[in-house]
Every structure is written in C-alpha cells, then in structure tokens.
Amino acid sequence: MHVKELMTGTPIACDLSDTANKAARIMWEQDCGAVPVVDRDGHAVGIVTDRDICMAAYFQGVPLSSIPIANIMSRDLCTVEAEAELSDAERLMQERQVRRLPVVKNGGLVGILSLSDVAQGVTRNPGLRQTTGESQQLLRTVGKVSEPRAHQSSTM
Q1: How do residues 86-104 score in pLDDT, each as one tens digit?
Q2: How sure is the predictor about 134, in pLDDT bands with cuts at 50, 70 and 90?
Q3: What is the Cα–Cα distance from 145 to 138, expressed in whole angstroms?
Q4: Domain assignment of residue 152, yes or no
Q5: What's the burial of 103, exposed, middle or buried (CB within 10 Å: 0-12/13-18/19+)?
Q6: Residue 34 belongs to a domain
Q7: Residue 156 lies in a domain
Q8: What is the C-alpha separation between 35 and 5, in angstroms, rounded?
Q9: Residue 34 burial by CB count (10 A; 0-12/13-18/19+): exposed, middle or buried?
Q10: 18 Cβ partners below 8 Å, 6+ apart?
C-alpha cells in the first residue's frame, strides 16, 4: 500500500510569514493537531503542532497574533513521498518519533499522513490486516512514537 492511499490530501498550510494565531485557527476549523508550513513555492519547510502553540503562548505570555510561526515551527522536518510504501512511512515515524508526516510530490506539499490515517486505514481494510501484518506494524509504530523522549530544554 502506498502513502497516497491513506494520506489526508490537500492540507491547509501556513506560510512562513503567518502567526501562531492563524495556525491555531486552522487547527480548530480543520479538527487537526498540526499544520505544515510552506515557503513561497509551496515546499514544506516546517510543521507546527498544537503543543508548539501552547508552549509558545505559555512561555512568551503574548497573544498568538504576536508569535511568528517561523519562531515556533519545527524546522527539522521529515517528509515522505506520496508514492512511498506505507511501511517506509511507518519506519520514518518510528525512527523520528513523529505522529504526522507531510507528504510531498516533486517537492510540493500534497498531503499529510498521520498515525490516525494509518490506524483508520488498517481498521477499514480487513484484507490489509490479515495479509500484510499491518496491524502488528501499526502497533509497533504507535509504541515507538509514544516512547518518552529525552527532555530537551529550550527557550522560545
């Protein structure tokens, strides 16, 4: 199975010039926990999560409209190609301990693959569960992504 078969297509993204307020609004309206950040050419350059926004608001103590998205997004971005095998995407999620992967095609953002997308895909497709062991792979991915990471101290 390919990533493009399970990803959420055409995600709404933020630009580098946007604020945390816009990202929070997108998350609320789209019922999601992360928003990709793109440059002028539509290439994914970062991702911001609901946790990033909460921590920035807590530490900075200013309105979200005063917090540049570029200051709080994760720039250590891990992406996956739309044509990649699902197992490769899950391996990336495990290695990087991420719950979401921006999906790209020819460098441009075309979707996002979340753990939820994978879980729902496995649930909806009994043949996939039985023939490929995808259920066991999903459990390994969830377990690895959920492991505590070493606390990283930083100031925002």
Answers
A1: 889 999 998 998 999 999 9
A2: low
A3: 10
A4: no
A5: buried
A6: yes
A7: no
A8: 20
A9: buried
A10: 37, 68, 69
